[in-house]
Design brief:
alpha/beta; 6-stranded mixed beta sheet; EC 7.6.2.3; ABC_transporter-like_CS
Length: 1393
């Protein structure tokens, strides 16, 4: 009891009730410490008494005795130290367990007693002591347990630390442990280059990101400070200081160059001075390289972090963006934001410093020119002053042309919609119309790009004229002004240095302009209205809601109180605001007035199921812990168990994006199962039973939603069109035009005799019959065989295979390996055409010839003898010099324009090929290819082909020809330099091939790891409301972070590779400068100052030229990867041709609408079971045929076969006696019509959605809308037919979208109409109206209906009953019922007989 009072009583249970028994902390610090102490204190008095009577003489102090005393005192002091530590550091821990403080005090006092006993025994002459031996033995034994516990704790801590370290640093980045020299020379990177050269790099070879570069760290820093500049200020300063050091090294470098030329001219100067100047130039060249590349490395690191930050912020924003903002900013635009826009921000970080640094460099160069040429330098200054505003003007004009970004956004947004709605495009044969829309955007984008490139070329022209202006003014103002070698070549070296900041400045200004536009773009996105987050029992008091701040209210005067644990049904016509009411409860709408509270956690089932590209299990569990028994009961209740039998890997089967390989009903049931599994407090169910068969719906209602279902104690708000469920609801809300017109229980509403009771009386008969299924029968109608479409069921031989492999559907983006094949370059140049390539090469050769002549002419001028203090024919020399300079300027302008145009021609062709390849691909291609892979091709890769490849070629060709010129000049001056140049070039070639293997593979890995980011963004934006409702944002943010970090692991080594190459190559290049300088010093007796000056000023450029050639070549090779990736889809399987030239159909085909199947067989893939087996049947003119059957019967396969979405494996289908396999796909699909199960709309006007080819008049469109019961709705819209539909038609309700699909069919009015469960999302009254419209308007057409509600086909001419790919029954409904076959039992099950 004493101990329990001092210790935590619960602590004692840990010893007994545990799988790993151990003594508790309290026991270890009390009993085990006290036991030897109590023994000593209790026995000490008796021992002292014993010693008193047994005296054996005194023993002198020995070293052993001293050691014992010291040890005892140490142990006593340790006890005191422990007590002080506990009081100071652990006071909170021991507040309720004072026993821990008592132990060290007792131990210390006991040790002092032991020391006293030792000395007492010595005094009494006792040589061995059993009393103390027993004490020490007890003390050691009792200390072993705490010692073991302490060792265990230390081992655990060390192992945890090691595990954490290893998990974080599976492959740590070597820069962390690199030495100073290794860091500044980037030698730490060499290991990866060697590995990449030996074998192609894979993602596993890459280093893990440094902690400071991870999304988690960067974004937490950013959220803490919310200012990018603030967070990165320190790094900016470090990079600026490196850049300024670069400028200082240039300054000293020029001085030494001038001194060297002075030395060559002065024959009496001692040789050692020449060598000193040569080595000084070499040293300064090396320093310049070091500073420059450390600066670039710092900039790229900051740029990478900016990219991570922007991606992270955009993702977080896309999770909280409101529906109103979502309509103005689509998935395509968000993808563009994280691809092209982040790249522009990164360029800005790298080149921004040039905006303020270039003027400093220009100022320094002009100062030195003034020193050499005096006031004549003003002419150069005047030229530069003229260039500045010209560059500013050009940059301003180019920034106006950045509307290219707007067109690119539009194109990506449209591509995203095309990929989302590709099935509808194929059903309606609308590919051409949408292709034209994409190409319209593309043409505008390329037009803006072309103008921008021409303006850039104009800015390159005036640089050549600076030297002409300065030398011209210098020799003309005074004939005594002599141009000697020192003046000419130091000035030329300065002018060459001047060209760099002058060329950088327009580029820096352009990137700054682009970055400001990008920032505006991002700010606009971030300022999009975010959702508030609040949440307490579903109560809305006098609420008015709208979709946007400024928009009209969609819900008015809403007052609802939902008691805990009740079932509330929401009913009403299409567009009456039922889904909006749920959105308001979720907080997705803008609250204008009133109050809303929702209690506890929420689970939401949207009307259109949102399914992730993950396994069935992951979709249901949705981030929660998997509890097997609960999971199985959820699957059973949601009627998903029979589906698992169809799926090849059961619940480990991968489901395609947006549930591509599931039917509408399966998607809804998975969506419902996800909500049920969550065990939330409140369930918001938006018509989850519309897409399932009546008796499956009844099963789900009984087992899940209803009063006896597994959610019976939860609060449920159910939007429904099923009248049979209403009697079991506790409260019914009747909605019309955004208001709750009636509310009450079922009996209350019926007794009121209102519109609701009339409506129920009219439709209850049909509805009740349709859905009163036999409760005892098993639910075996699941509805679709589509799962088989892309997945193979397990055969015996495959049973052992890993389930994940069997269930895999989508293919991840794969990286090619090795160097880019030559065929890619051939492909690229072929698209440009020889007609443009030959002039480009000729222009470059002409430009370099003009440049060589220009420089050589200067050398001749500098060596011209001086007679009477003047040089002869100065005006002629100046005229020739000016003409050569002008020719060079024209050639530079010509080459820049020609390459830009060539690049635009190539990118136009490549984009067109990509678009054609994608649009001509069959449906199976879209099911196995994630949309992120395709969007990546259309955004980032096309952007690289537009801009990066032409720029790379421009740079590379320019420098290759420049290198030729330099080599010629250096060899003319000092032929011995050839001994240095040749091995250097061979070494460069070796390093380049060594490096390109690594660099190219890194570029591929970076491209491949980018696709999953887009796929994830795409999926998140579409399912944002579900993710928010389930509160899963943190999990999705973690996934996004890991994908961005994975991408950065290949991006980081990519830019370090460039720095590694440049530093090492420039050191080699600097050796050439040294060689040229030393050879000039050695041969000063034979060389003229002019040729030395020419050789030196050119050899100084070699370093830069060679590294730029390698860098440009690598850039080209890296970016040609984009061509490779765009061309990838040229070899994938394609559909049959859209039109056949030799096969023209009559314009009125099909005239009668007869359909004939002759032994028609269909397989989803070779080797799979037949989906349709030798079907032979004929549908007569104007016949109305219903198609019914259980799961896997082949109902949908029949529709897919008629539209040739799947090609026949055997047999034929004839329409009006024409074999459909022998006509073009577009000819076939445009002449027949389908109203599909999933109503898809595209962003654009309502009219475009009805008639993308503009083939019908406005009157015809209005007539179709009237017949589809949409005329009142559309005429009430402010823009009528021009009403802008948002992406996916999200600003219309699902029912309205289905009516738009009906209007499309009414507008096309073809002789054959296929309905695939087309009225699932509409209320019964509208369904009746639609059925009557179909009967009257399509009276003279052939109608095939894939039916789930059997009552809709009871008046059809014939019904086809299918089972396992065969037609088992076919007759009129009455005859089939009389025959008591399969159809009879289906009708009986549905309560129709």
């Amino acid at each position: 009891h004493v101990i329990s009072g001092m210790c935590d009583a619960r602590d004692w249970n840990l010893t007994w009730f545990t799988p790993n028994p151990d003594l508790t902390q309290c026991f270890q610090h009390t009993v085990l410490v006290w036991f030897p102490c109590v023994y000593l204190w209790l026995c000490a008095p008796f021992y002292f008494l014993y010693l008193r009577f047994h005296h054996h003489g005194r023993i002198s102090i020995s070293s052993l005795c001293c050691a014992k005393t010291a040890l005892g005192l140490c142990l006593a002091s340790f006890g005191l130290l422990e007590m002080i530590y506990l009081l100071v550091k652990r006071s909170r821990d021991i507040e309720h367990q004072m026993v821990f403080l008592l132990s060290p005090i007792i131990r210390s006092l006991t040790m002092l007693l032991a020391v006293f006993v030792i000395h007492l025994e010595r005094m009494k002459g006792c040589r061995s002591s059993l009393f103390l031996f027993l004490f020490w033995t007890l003390a050691v034994v009792c200390s072993l347990v705490p010692l073991r516990a302490n060792i265990q704790a230390v081992v655990e801590e060390v192992s945890n630390t090691l595990l954490t370290y290893l998990s974080l640093k599976q492959n740590p980045c070597p820069v962390e442990d690199a030495s100073f020299l290794s860091k500044i020379l980037f030698w730490w990177f060499s290991g990866l280059v060697v590995k990449g050269y030996r074998s192609p790099l894979t993602a596993e070879d890459l280093w893990s990101l440094r902690e400071k570069d991870t999304s988690k760290k960067i974004i937490s820093d950013l959220e803490r400070e919310w200012s990018m500049q603030c967070a990165k200020l320190q790094q900016w300063f470090s990079s600026k200081s490196l850049n300024l050091l670069n400028v200082v090294s240039i300054t000293v470098f020029i001085s030494s160059h001038s001194l060297l030329l002075g030395f060559v001219r002065d024959e009496d100067a001692p040789l050692w001075k020449g060598y000193l100047f040569a080595f000084t130039m070499f040293l300064l060249s090396c320093l310049q390289s070091l500073f420059n590349h450390q600066y670039m490395y710092a900039c790229f690191t900051v740029g990478m972090r900016v990219k991570t930050a922007v991606m992270g912020l955009v993702y977080r924003k896309s999770l909280v963006i409101s529906s109103a903002a979502r309509r103005t900013c689509t998935v395509g635009e968000i993808v563009n934001l994280v691809s092209a826009d982040t790249q522009k921000l990164m360029d800005f970080v790298v080149y921004f410093n040039a905006v303020w640094l270039a003027p400093i460099e220009i100022g320094l160069c002009l100062f030195f020119l003034w020193q050499h040429l005096g006031p004549s330098a003003l002419a150069g200054i005047a030229t530069v002053i003229f260039i500045f505003p010209l560059n500013g003007l050009i940059a301003k004009m180019r920034s106006k042309l950045q509307v290219q970004m707007k067109y690119m956004d539009g194109r990506i947004k449209l591509m995203n919609e095309i990929l989302s709605g590709i099935k509808i495009l194929k059903f309606y044969a609308w590919e051409k119309a949408f292709k034209e829309r994409v190409l319209g955007y593309r043409e505008n984008e390329l037009k803006a790009l072309k103008k921008s490139q021409i303006l850039y070329s104009v800015g390159t022209f005036p640089c050549v004229q600076i030297a002409f202006a300065m030398f011209g003014v210098y020799v003309l103002i005074d004939e005594k002004n002599i141009l000697d070698a020192q003046k000419v070549f130091v000035s030329m070296a300065l002018i060459n240095i001047l060209k760099t900041p002058l060329s950088q400045l327009p580029f820096a200004m352009s990137t700054t302009m682009q970055a400001s536009l990008t920032t505006l773009h991002i700010v606009t996105f971030f300022s999009g209205f975010s959702l508030p987050t609040d949440g307490d029992s579903v109560v809305i008091e006098n609420g008015t809601f709208s979709w946007s701040r400024d928009g009209p209210p969609c819900l008015r005067r809403i007052s609802v109180k939902v008691p805990h644990g009740s079932l509330v049904a929401v009913v009403g016509h299409v567009g009456s605001g039922k889904s909006s009411l749920l959105s308001a409860m979720l907080g997705e709408m803008e609250k204008k007035s009133g109050n809303i509270t929702v209690k506890g956690s929420v689970a939401y089932v949207p009307q259109q199921a949102w399914i992730q590209n993950a396994t069935m299990r992951e979709n249901v569990v949705f981030g929660q812990e998997k509890k097997e028994s609960w999971y199985q009961s959820v699957l059973e209740a949601c009627a998903l168990l029979p589906d698992l039998e169809i799926l090849p890997a059961r619940d480990a089967t991968e489901i395609g994006e947006k549930g591509l390989n599931l039917s509408g009903g399966q998607k809804q049931r998975v969506s419902l199962a996800r909500a049920v599994y969550r065990k939330a407090d409140t369930y918001l169910l938006d018509d989850p039973l519309s897409a399932v068969d009546a008796h499956v719906g009844q099963h789900i209602f009984d087992r899940v939603i209803g009063p006896k279902g597994i959610l019976k104690n939860k609060t449920r708000v159910l939007v429904t069109h099923g009248l049979s469920f209403l009697p079991q609801a506790d409260l019914i809300l009747v909605m019309a035009d955004g208001e709750i017109t009636e509310s009450g229980s079922y009996t209350e509403l019926l007794n009121r005799r209102s519109t609701f009771s009339d409506f129920v009386k009219t439709f209850a008969g049909n509805e009740h019959k349709e859905s009163s299924t036999h409760r005892g029968e098993p639910v075996n109608e699941l509805h679709h065989i589509k799962a088989i479409q892309t997945m193979k069921p397990l055969s015996d031989s495959e049973q052992e295979q890993d389930l994940e492999e069997v269930g895999k559907l989508t293919e991840a983006d794969k990286a090619h390996t090795g160097r880019v094949k030559l065929v890619m370059y051939v492909e690229y140049f072929r698209t440009i055409g020889l007609a443009l390539i030959i002039p480009i090469v000729f222009l470059y050769a002409f430009q370099q010839a003009a440049s060589l002549g220009y420089n050589y002419w200067l050398r001749l001028w500098a060596d011209d003898p001086v007679i009477n203090g003047t040089q002869a024919h100065v005006d002629v020399k100046l005229a020739v010099f000016g003409a050569l300079g002008f020719a060079q300027g024209i050639a530079i302008f010509g080459t820049t324009v020609a390459i830009s145009l060539g690049g635009i021609i190539a990118s136009r062709h490549l984009h067109l090929d990509l678009l054609n390849n994608v649009l001509h691909s069959p449906m199976s291609f879209f099911e196995s290819t994630p949309s992120g892979n395709l969007l990546n091709r259309f955004s980032k890769e096309i952007d690289a082909i537009d801009c990066m490849i032409p720029d790379g070629f421009k740079m590379m060709l320019g420098y290759v020809f420049k290198l030729l010129e330099v080599c010629i000049i250096v060899l003319m001056a000092t032929p011995f330099a050839g001994l240095v140049i040749l091995p250097l070039m061979l070494f460069y070639t070796f390093i380049q091939s060594f490096y390109v293997a690594t660099s190219c593979q890194l570029r591929r890995l970076e491209s491949v790891s980018r696709s999953p980011i887009y796929t994830h963004f795409n999926e998140t934006v579409q399912g944002a409301s579900v993710i928010r409702a389930f509160g899963e944002q943190p999990r999705f943010i973690l996934q996004a972070n890991s994908r961005v970090d994975h991408n950065q692991t290949s991006y980081f080594p990519r830019f370090v590779a460039t720095r590694w190459l440049a530093v090492n190559l420039e050191f080699l290049g600097n050796l050439l400068v040294l060689a040229a300088a030393i050879l000039s010093v050695m041969g000063r007796a034979t060389l003229s100052p002019g040729i030395v000056g020419l050789a030196m000023s050119h050899s100084l450029q070699v370093t830069g030229i060679l590294s730029w050639i390698v860098r440009a070549w690598t850039d080209v090779e890296n970016n040609i990867v984009s061509v490779e990736r765009v061309k990838e889809y040229a070899d994938t399987p394609k559909e049959a041709p859209w039109t056949l030239e030799n096969r023209s159909l009559p314009s009125a085909w099909p005239q009668t609408g007869t359909i004939e199947f002759q032994e028609y067989g269909l397989q989803y893939r070779k080797g799979l079971d037949w989906a349709l087996k030798e079907i032979t049947l004929s549908v007569r003119e104007r016949e109305k045929v219903g198609i019914v059957g259980r799961t896997g019967a082949g109902k949908s396969s029949l529709a897919l076969g008629i539209f040739r979405i799947l090609e026949a494996a055997k047999g034929q289908i004839y329409i009006d006696r024409v074999d459909i396999a022998e006509i073009g796909l577009q000819d076939l699909r445009s002449r027949i019509t389908i109203i599909p199960q999933d109503p898809v709309l595209f962003s654009g006007s309502l009219r475009m959605n009805l008639d993308p080819f503009d083939g019908y008049s406005d009157e015809e469109v209005w007539r179709a809308l009237e017949l589809a019961h949409l005329k009142n709705f559309v005429s009430g819209l402010p823009d009528k037919l021009n009403h802008e539909c948002s992406e996916g038609g999200e600003n219309l309700s699902l029912g309205q979208r289905q009516l738009v699909c009906l209007a499309r069919a009414l507008l096309r009015k073809t002789k054959i109409l296929v309905l695939d469960e087309a009225t699932a999302a509409v209320d019964l009254e509208t369904d009746n109206l639609i059925q009557s419209t179909i009967r009257t308007q399509f009276e003279d057409c052939t109608v095939l209906t894939i039916a789930h509600r059997l009552n809709t086909i009871m008046d059809y001419t014939r019904v086809i009953v299918m089972d396992r790919g065969n037609v088992t029954e076919m007759d009129s409904p009455a005859n089939l019922i009389a025959g008591r076959g399969q159809f009879y039992w289906m009708c009986r099950e549905a309560g129709l007989v």
